[in-house]
Specification:
about 325 residues; alpha/beta; Rossmann fold; 7-stranded mixed β-sheet; two-stranded antiparallel ribbon; 14 helices; 11 strands; about 35% helix; about 15% strand; globular; disordered N terminus
Length: about 325
């Protein structure tokens, strides 16, 4: 019989410096995810493993590598998701293990920035024995603040957010949410409020409407972003045979924005709300890197590439394991 506690293989692989990609690939093959759109290079220290603070890893063979190439990454899909269905205006697809084997059901909710986190969460869900539901909508975070997008997208988003609590009431097996949203998203600001206050309030009000069956809301901090010039810089660095991660590094204060969702979670001081911040993977004390361990971090200016997102699984798993004792 399965234990309700998460297992530890992903944490163990994080401890094996130089073996991350091989483990990720092994997990993918073992669980039948043959639909992965691109093969990843089986190189020690590839991707996020190169910036694991607990298990330092360096592979000089990756110094000049960039995988995938920026031109190939731009239009790549997110991690595959199965059993797509619609519940009202809420589109849902599943990942992880089948319901009959699941020890817990989680949901990943938010805008397109949430969608990219399905890649590491899918690996973690299969390893932990979880079933995952991906509930995302472009330019639409789980917030009661109205996002400043053109119509009809704005109205559709308001309706989508309004239907999320009802969906979760109909699915009380979902006890944990992972929420992610674009940190720089603009919202309608009521008179007398600042935009930051309006955004924080929007998240707080949306969370307050969720049913009590949602016992845990895990807020993942939005990663940094780059500019169009930085994308061109990566191409130029590849052509000049320079290490693109260093040559095209972006000042930290330009790449990172204040994440109102994180601010809201910390202000709440509620055991229901917890925060995961992996900024240390993307950035040093002064700079953020568009290529890490030979992996292209962004497929465009602000969405993670599938290749890099997959390599976040061990460190994300470790953070989840850190939170799990309170669950």
């Amino acid at each position: 019989m399965r234990s309700n506690r998460p297992s530890r293989p992903l944490l163990a692989c994080a401890a094996a410096a130089g073996a991350l990609l091989l483990v990720v690939l092994a997990l993918t093959a073992a669980h039948g995810q043959a639909e992965a759109p691109v093969p990843l290079p089986a190189s020690a220290c590839f991707g996020a493993a190169a910036r694991d603070p607990l298990h330092p890893c360096r592979n000089r063979a990756l110094r000049l590598k960039v995988f995938p190439a920026p031109s190939a990454a731009h239009d790549e899909p997110n991690a595959p998701c199965n059993s797509f269905h619609r519940d009202g205006h809420v589109n849902v697809c599943a990942f992880g293990v089948i319901p009959e084997l699941a020890t817990r059901t989680i949901a990943l909710i938010g805008d397109s920035h949430a969608s990219v986190w399905r890649a590491p969460l899918a690996l973690i869900a299969r390893d932990f024995g979880w079933r995952g539901l991906s509930i995302t909508r472009r330019s639409c975070p789980l917030s009661a603040a109205t996002r400043l997008t053109p119509e009809p997208a704005r109205s559709h988003c308001v309706r989508w957010v309004g239907e999320i609590p009802g969906f979760l009431r109909r699915h009380p097996e979902v006890d944990t949410l992972f929420v992610v949203a674009l940190a720089r998203g603009k919202v309608v600001v009521p008179p007398g409020r600042t935009e930051t206050e309006a955004r924080i309030s929007g998240y707080e009000r949306a969370w307050a409407r969720l049913p009590a069956t949602v016992r845990h809301i895990v807020v993942i901090r939005d990663p940094p972003r780059i500019k169009r010039a930085d994308v061109r810089c990566i191409d130029d660095a590849i052509a000049a045979r320079k290490p693109a991660g260093l040559a095209c590094a972006v000042p930290r204060n330009q790449a990172l924005a204040r994440d109102a969702q994180i601010l809201a979670a910390r202000r709440a001081q509620s055991p229901r709300l917890q925060v995961i911040d992996l900024t240390h993977v993307f950035c040093g004390s002064r700079s953020c890197f568009p290529v890490i361990g030979g992996a292209l971090v962004f497929k465009d200016r602000h969405h993670l590439s599938l290749a890099f997102a997959r390599t976040l699984a061990p460190q994300l798993a470790r953070e989840i394991q850190r939170l799990a004792p309170t669950w």
